[in-house]
Amino acid sequence: YFFPCSLFHLSLPLSLSSCLSLSVSQIPGSSQSMKKTIGHRGVETNTGETTYKKTTSSALKGAIQLGITHTVGSLSQKAERDVLMQDFVVVESIFFPSEGSNLTPAHHYSDFRFKTYAPIAFRYFRELFGIRPDDYLYSLCNDGLIELSNSGASGSLFYVSSDDEFIIKTVQHKEAEFLQKLLPGYFMNLNQNKRTLLPKFYGLYCIQAGGKNIRLVVMNNLLPRVVHMHHKYDMKGSTYKRRASAKERDKTFPTFKDLDFIQDLPDGLLLETDNYNALSKTIQRDCLLLQSFKIMDYSLLVGIHNLEQASRERERGGRQMGDSGGSEGAVTPDQRRPQAQKSLYCTAMESIQGEARGKGALESEDHMGGIPARNSKGERLLVFIGIIDILQSYRFIKKLEHSWKALVHDGDTVSVHRPGFYAERFQQFMCNTVFKKIPCKTAVCVWIRGRLGIVPLVPLFTPSFCSGMQSGRPDLVPRTPPLAGGSGDAEANFSTSSLGSTGLTTSSPLLQ
């Protein structure tokens, strides 16, 4: 029987890195002086540059941009039509010799081949999300791609486009193969339902040299670099070893896990009722879809921007937003492309509402597509979320991994589990522990105007939490108005305050 050594790396002399390492041929920019880190991702000892399958990051970025430039250009010459089932299995290939050809330009890299999977289908999907070919090309190829250094333990490389629009991630052969099989049903559902937190895949490519392949997917970017993420969490709804390691905590932009969230925010993230209900329904629908595809081991990526903390940082002249934060290589708003085209249905708010803003519209600096929330202190937050790592099917290897972990720990708490149980646990954790309804959305009092003046009759909401939600604004707390003489009939007046994305607003003359 074959047992993957990743399951036994604690007991066998083989490390996970050694288990995943493969012998590959070089393509330009590669080097023998390389220190292996994890999976196919390594670091050159001489220059410190990241490598993937012994290919330097700079060489890989150049090949990506050359390939996408050609494939988008050639695709524009093909007439638009409906997507057919056979379009999902089409693979187009183009050879890029270093000296150039009648179809490709000369370049300073070694020869490589660029493959494009399901080009007609992905073109349709990009159009579905409002991405024009010239915008797609401009975002990915006009300026250099930015490598994200905090790419996690998957062994993948991540690049973000300079305009914050797209993420490019390297994937393994099995993940790319699974995505190909998933495409028809996944996008059929996505075409019918815009309200989803699932990733949007805009392209699947492969760079091949010497018979070796580097596969890449292009996706929507969940965490805009222009927004400082004060906290970032990757959560699965599991408690088994779901705490950030000491090495992760020492990073400039650490990604925390489930147990860290429970410790940091025991009261969860508090949402307005409408937003909470929309988010809960979206998570439930997405979990059912993933379960139907027998997908598990996915995560919810949560980025939290604290508006109060950001305001305090600006007031004391501290770090600039672009230098301070939870998103690497962050840029200030004035550095963004003036007429930035954003993908439709891709912000956190659009994902749970199923509504998109007009193309070309920029989010305000106060919102940027985040979901307004509060913490237990009443501080205003913007939450950016999305479901990631969905290309894990419950195959034999995963079943084996769960069985092994269940022998040494409670099987119901480990991250790897059968899809049905995983979906239910994920949904329960996100909707009951991570996100909660604001316990006191409004401070409402019924007032009676009588002969003795105006006095409060029935305070409908009076928990101490309400005063905390005012964020130091006691003037917003309902209080008894001065006595006023006057006759007569009883008159009820309702005083309300609502929680918006930019703060509390009042709508009653009684709140002075």
Automatic annotation (TrEMBL):
PROSITE patterns: PIPK
One Pfam family this sequence matches: PIP5K
Residue segments, region Disordered: 312-338, 477-512
Signal peptide feature range: 1-19
Alphabetized UniProt keyword annotations: ATP-binding, Cytoplasm, Kinase, Nucleotide-binding, Signal, Transferase
Ranges of biased composition (kind: Low complexity): 495-512
Name assigned to this protein: PIPK domain-containing protein
Organism: Oncorhynchus tshawytscha
Gene name of this polypeptide: LOC121846138
